[in-house]
Amino acid sequence: METIAGEENNTFQLQECRMRVEREVTPLMNEVQGALREKDGGGGMDVEQRRNELFAGGSNSGGGYASPNLDGGETGDMMQSLIRDSDDLLSESRALCAESEEIGSGTLGTMGMQREQLTNASDYLRGARGTVDQARGLLQDMNRKALRNKRFLYCVIAVLILANLLVLIAVIKKHTK
Predict the structure, then answer these.
(1) Domain parsing of the chain, residue ranges
(2) In whole angstroms, what is the distance from residue 24 CA to residue 54 CA?
(3) Is the pTM of this model over 0.90?
(4) DSSP letter string over the chain?
(5) What is the mean pLDDT of the chain?
(6) Cβ–Cβ under 8 Å, residues 5 and 13
């Protein structure tokens, strides 16, 4: 990672990598080297010194992990307070989770009812469309019949007008002779 940061000329990332190595890897390396020295020659620091160096910030590590004091006192009270706060937050999270689950199941129920309503509305609409199609066909048949009857009546009226004209002409010829 340090090599990648160096190639990219990212100084911030490069510094962060070096700090991580010092903070995390160096104490572990010292622990491993101490264990190897102890195994090979039996020399070196004893277990307690290495543990103190690793966790309590020994002289070579430049700082380290400080374990909480659970024996009591100010740090113990603070830990108990943190644990209580954590429990309270966990209880609140559980309550929110249960409430969210309740709301979700209510929403699912509502959506199910809406789906049924939409299905019923779709069925009614399909039936209404069928009825409209039947009515359209009947209206077209009635329109054709009305048009046929209208033409027939026009023809009858034309024949009657023609007949009246012929009668009128015949009457005029009879009176003029």
Answers:
(1) 1-67
(2) 10
(3) no
(4) -HHHHHHTT-HHHHHHHHHHIIIIIHHHHHHHHHHHHHHHHS-S--HHHHHHHHHTT-TTTTS-------SSHHHHHHHHHHHHHHHHHHHHHHHHHHHHHHHHHHHHHHHHHHHHHHHHHHHHHHHHHHHHHHHHHHHHHHHHHHHHHHHHHHHHHHHHHHHHHHHHHHHHHHHH-
(5) 81
(6) yes
